[in-house]
Amino acid sequence: MGRKKGVAPRLAEALGIVLGTEEIPMRLRAWDGSEAGPTGAPVIEFRSRRGLRRMLWSPNQLGLSRAFVAGDVDGPGDLFESFSALSSVGKFAELKAFRPPTFGERIGLVCTAVRVGALGLPPTPPPEEMNVTRVGRKHSKKRDAAAISHHYDVGNEFYALVLGASMVYSCAVWEDEKIGLDAAQEAKLDLVCRKLGLRPGMRVLDVGCGWGSFALHAARNYGVDVVGVTLSKEQAAFGRERVINAGLADRIEVRVQDYRDVHDGPFDGISSIGMSEHVGRDQIGNYASHLYGLLRPGGRLLNHAISWNAGEMPPDPDSFIPRYVFPDGEMLSLTVMIGALESAGLEVLDVEALRRHYGLTLRAWVRNLEENWDEAVRLTSEGRARVWRLYMATSALGFERGLNGVNQVLAQRPGGEEPPLRRREWM
Fold first, then answer.
1. Rounded to whole angstroms, how far apart are CA atoms 236 and 255?
2. How far is 394 from 82, CA to CA, in rounded Å?
3. Structure confidence by residue, pLDDT tens digits, 258-304
4. Does residue 172 contact residue 357 with C-beta atoms inside 8 Å?
5. Left (φ > 0), alpha (ψ -120 to 50) or beta: where does 259 sit?
6. 240-to-13, 162, 220, 236, 418 alpha-carbon distances in Å
7. How far apart are CA 164 and CA 175, in angstroms?
8. pTM (2 d.p.)
9. How far is 378 from 382, CA to CA, in rounded Å?
10. What proportions of the chain, in percent to the nearest 5, are helix, strand and coil?
């Protein structure tokens, strides 16, 4: 049997230890040009020794994520194929938090690092990483504001490249796969308006209003007055400019405000689109109760949120999403969300699952990013663009495989006007 040559076979062994599998279903390319793994399989490229060193010091999802964001590791081909292969084996496929390596496995990683000249001190994490625990108590107003700023205050021009003209950062609603992202987002905004039963003269609260897209659609097409709240100063500035340009400044108010500080109800309707993921399991009951108190009797709440569909799994603060994308974010199950709304006194009228729609939306965002890659890097940083590419591609796969869902839950405060007998009013 011939001796293994080059760095790649050693890297394959190390990656197998981290993933918890004896054979990795991908082609591994090392910085010395050597390759290992099945021919024709998706390629994972280790561009430098730092990639292995990051895995040595953080032999889990965080170590791999740091290596990708820093550019030490890359998927030079179809990113969806590479991540699909990576997530189909070992600890990824188990849908559980990474099991820490055993003592013997750690020794194996150290020996591999020594053999390929990668042993050394832990590399500094990429600057795009955030450890939100240093900011204050979890879900305090200060810490929530810092978490939101980390994700959203990275430049409106960057978001425009990714999201397109609609500037809507949540799951679109696709009549079919050919209608295009902007049309699918407009369909989603209109669906929310119809579910809320909006009519001229109503007063609406948009919790987590983003760049003002829902407020603009509702005021322009349904004649309502809208108060939008966000914790992102950049979003608010952009939204206010859009409102002025649309000639709707007398109908729409955009505030930089925590939803917990909104006390000027009542509102005839409340939309919360892609916001409650930031609330957290411990606070979701207070969230539902506060929105209940802001609704007038008969007023409706539309809660549009991502859900975790793969069973119980404790949040891991030392994984990719909490450190790079949504600090302190938690995906709750649909059961938990409905339970919180009902416990607050709201009557659930309708639930619509949009899981497949988010896969299509995320793939459209990835295409926008890849087609405008150089400009995206110029507007932010290569690391930030890589965070988004990794996050959106892996999230698309999660929705397509059913690990994640996204649901619109329509609820109503009892009293006032009765809901329709059938849901055809808004479908």
1. 7
2. 10
3. 999 999 999 999 999 999 998 988 999 999 999 999 999 999 999 99
4. yes
5. alpha
6. 54, 20, 15, 6, 35
7. 18
8. 0.91
9. 8
10. 45, 15, 40
